Amino acid sequence: MPEHTIIRVAVPSPLRRQFDYLLPRSVGPAAPGQRVQVAFGQQQLVGIITELPQSSDLPVEKLKPVLALIDSQPLFDTALLQLCLWAANYYQHPVGEVLHAALPALLRAGEQAALATETRWQITVQGLGLPEGAPKGAKKQANLLTFLRAGARTPADIEQAGFSRAILKALGDKQLVEAIEIAETQTFNGPLSELALTLNQEQSAALKAIKPTGFSTSLLDGVTGSGKTEVYLQAIAQQLEAGRQALVLVPEIGLTPQTVARFQRRFNVPVGILHSGVADGGRNSAWLRARAGLDRIIIGTRSAVFTPLKHPGIIIVDEEHDNSYKQQEGFRYSARDLAVYRAHQLHIPLLMGSATPSLESLSNTRSGRYQHLKLSKQAASEHSTRIIPVDIRAQQLQEGLASQSLAAIKGAVAKGEQALVFINRRGFAPVIMCHFCGWQAKCPRCDARMTLHRQPYHLHCHHCDHQRRVPQQCPDCKAPELQHIGQGTERTEEFLSKLLPHTPILRIDRDSTRSHKQLNSMLDQIATGEPCVLVGTQMLAKGHHFPKVSTVVILEADGGLFSADFRATEKMAQLIIQVAGRAGREALQGQVLLQSHHTDHPYLQLLLNQGYGALADCLLRERQVVELPPFSFMVILRAESKRPENALQFLQQARAKAEGLQAPSPQFRYLGPLPASMEKRQDRFRFLLQLQASSRAQLQQFLPQWLAQIEQMALSRRVRWNLDVDPQETH
Ligand code: ADP
Ligand code: ZN
Ligand code: ZN
């Protein structure tokens, strides 16, 4: 028997391969899913064992022994390891980086996978054997023994009950009590803490259609306020009663304390929370607690799709159309799509919900791959909210607002209600310009204008974060005054504050909510129900439940009608409907005013008159005709470089290699290299090459061969490049 086991290790490196090492048998038994510390070039890295191969391509003498075996038990269970390997292959991303992405930061850094424990004192077998009242002549000791007969207690509990340390020590010395270390945990406390609502007919039909066991995918397609969350809660209740866990994915900015509170009010079980606002230690323990089966509900953003579950019961993806489910850098995965794979692998139901489902998911309901469950009415409101187009062509606007919109805002406030103004641009004004010579403030590093901010006063590039002082006069012609053109949230806030001096104006955008605390204090103020006007970006569009908002004004949302991105119209419609959904959610009649220069555009007409579903149908038909996703499968190879010719040449060579493997045909199409829609960003010139295939299998077979060739190209080491499978952004 050899003294070493050969182990194959995935390390976090951009190299698309794994490496073999030796694990001395004396160190411990090896299994896939354990972490090891290894020497890798000049570095020491934390790698993950993926398999125990019979032999290595290298002679055994050449293999290095690992520096340490970190885990005595696999950290990744078989299912999670397999999910990561599959994802690495599907997205053509290095396995080691994928495995690292699945871990919380502390485990990634090699920290022990130990749950926080606490000490409890329990009565020993010997102690249990004593009769009531023993030990005789030591009344306090006898009382403490009686106290501990009911169950193990923490030192704090014991102290609080009036027993001193000396008494505890005396019993310990007699071996009648002992200290144990257990994972901090609450157990399932049985009854629900808030009663479930009686489902309406559509809700109960939906719930019934979701089989609690076995794999299925359901799309809960329900207008905002139709009670989708109530269906999630009741589907989760079934799982909890059966002793299983629920994993709930929410969009990045949808994970507010209000969301979490909704789950905690309903269920008396430990809930784990995983998102970027949770500190490293908290995320680590939530991950480990889910893995140990202690947390019964896990709520998290994108990367929570990789949470290990001891007793998987159901996966829920709320607002499945949301962009934040797709990671846009590094490992470019879609958490929604991986959730489908995961549910299939674990043989459990997946429930996705949205008021504005993605065309991908709608298309999957058509083909019968997903169940289509519909909720057509608001659950708690008698009214239905209408979206009224406001044609602003040739209208005199006041700081971007039409007189009809202003009247509606004032009217709402006068009635003691709240109003919301949506404007998808932060800062004061997107353009600052000289009226005499036409000079504009442009970012020196990007093909973009700089936005004027007032709080604090500066110019800011929203693409690379470059900041500079605001010039006092025109840098070109020295004219003394510069004009501020267009609207940002700060400007609207300032204008409304003057117009309504006695009403609080709350601006909610990335600048005003740098910390979770700032956002939460504004949400608390809104929740008081006092009249106020909210001014905000798409941060306001998602998930929030504002019962006192009756009036919504949408300033600029129709840009999507004329964009180069084939998804732009879909995204525009989703945004309009989501923002509109903030109005009239409870007792109040809602009204939504949509300001546009294009109120008679057929897409807007369809959306406003027949709803999101009708527009989605129309867009799907168009995509089918031109064979765009979801009717074909797309990948984009992007390249950027300080020298534009390098990036361009890299993509030209990559295209030539690709055509060598797969000749262009109607089933396998090439587009590009093209300049990206913002060609220069952060001093780099950006280009892209688009591939579209009719068959996913064919594309998947092609990709690894192509990448192997790309990696051989000298230019591949001189430009930054990446591959995006199923890209969300295509320009
Ligand atoms: P969605 O998630 O679809 O936006 P919610 O689940 O937040 O909708 O429900 C909107 C409102 O309707 C909430 O106030 C909720 O308590 C209420 N609601 C949901 N289902 C019911 C029901 N069956 N009966 C009464 N009220 C309901
Ligand atoms: Zn000038
Ligand atoms: Zn810039």
TrEMBL record:
<feature type="domain" description="Helicase ATP-binding">
    <location>
        <begin position="209"/>
        <end position="375"/>
    </location>
</feature>
<keyword id="KW-0067">ATP-binding</keyword>
<keyword id="KW-0378">Hydrolase</keyword>
<keyword id="KW-0639">Primosome</keyword>
<feature type="binding site">
    <location>
        <position position="461"/>
    </location>
    <ligand>
        <name>Zn(2+) 2</name>
    </ligand>
</feature>
<keyword id="KW-0347">Helicase</keyword>
<keyword id="KW-0238">DNA-binding</keyword>
<feature type="binding site">
    <location>
        <position position="434"/>
    </location>
    <ligand>
        <name>Zn(2+) 1</name>
    </ligand>
</feature>
<keyword id="KW-0862">Zinc</keyword>
<feature type="binding site">
    <location>
        <position position="443"/>
    </location>
    <ligand>
        <name>Zn(2+) 2</name>
    </ligand>
</feature>
<keyword id="KW-0479">Metal-binding</keyword>
<dbReference type="Pfam" id="PF17764">
    <property type="entry name" value="PriA_3primeBD"/>
</dbReference>
<dbReference type="InterPro" id="IPR001650">
    <property type="entry name" value="Helicase_C-like"/>
</dbReference>
<dbReference type="Pfam" id="PF18319">
    <property type="entry name" value="Zn_ribbon_PriA"/>
</dbReference>
<feature type="domain" description="Helicase C-terminal">
    <location>
        <begin position="469"/>
        <end position="627"/>
    </location>
</feature>
<comment type="similarity">
    <text>Belongs to the helicase family. PriA subfamily.</text>
</comment>
<dbReference type="Pfam" id="PF00271">
    <property type="entry name" value="Helicase_C"/>
</dbReference>
<comment type="function">
    <text>Initiates the restart of stalled replication forks, which reloads the replicative helicase on sites other than the origin of replication. Recognizes and binds to abandoned replication forks and remodels them to uncover a helicase loading site. Promotes assembly of the primosome at these replication forks.</text>
</comment>
<dbReference type="InterPro" id="IPR011545">
    <property type="entry name" value="DEAD/DEAH_box_helicase_dom"/>
</dbReference>
<feature type="binding site">
    <location>
        <position position="464"/>
    </location>
    <ligand>
        <name>Zn(2+) 2</name>
    </ligand>
</feature>
<dbReference type="InterPro" id="IPR041236">
    <property type="entry name" value="PriA_C"/>
</dbReference>
<dbReference type="InterPro" id="IPR040498">
    <property type="entry name" value="PriA_CRR"/>
</dbReference>
<feature type="binding site">
    <location>
        <position position="437"/>
    </location>
    <ligand>
        <name>Zn(2+) 1</name>
    </ligand>
</feature>
<dbReference type="Pfam" id="PF18074">
    <property type="entry name" value="PriA_C"/>
</dbReference>
<dbReference type="GO" id="GO:0016787">
    <property type="term" value="F:hydrolase activity"/>
</dbReference>
<feature type="binding site">
    <location>
        <position position="446"/>
    </location>
    <ligand>
        <name>Zn(2+) 2</name>
    </ligand>
</feature>
<keyword id="KW-0413">Isomerase</keyword>
<dbReference type="InterPro" id="IPR027417">
    <property type="entry name" value="P-loop_NTPase"/>
</dbReference>
<comment type="subunit">
    <text>Component of the replication restart primosome.</text>
</comment>
<keyword id="KW-0235">DNA replication</keyword>
<protein>
    <recommendedName>
        <fullName>Replication restart protein PriA</fullName>
        <ecNumber>5.6.2.4</ecNumber>
    </recommendedName>
</protein>
<dbReference type="InterPro" id="IPR005259">
    <property type="entry name" value="PriA"/>
</dbReference>
<dbReference type="InterPro" id="IPR041222">
    <property type="entry name" value="PriA_3primeBD"/>
</dbReference>
<keyword id="KW-0547">Nucleotide-binding</keyword>
<feature type="binding site">
    <location>
        <position position="477"/>
    </location>
    <ligand>
        <name>Zn(2+) 1</name>
    </ligand>
</feature>
<feature type="binding site">
    <location>
        <position position="474"/>
    </location>
    <ligand>
        <name>Zn(2+) 1</name>
    </ligand>
</feature>
<dbReference type="InterPro" id="IPR042115">
    <property type="entry name" value="PriA_3primeBD_sf"/>
</dbReference>
<dbReference type="Pfam" id="PF00270">
    <property type="entry name" value="DEAD"/>
</dbReference>
<dbReference type="InterPro" id="IPR014001">
    <property type="entry name" value="Helicase_ATP-bd"/>
</dbReference>
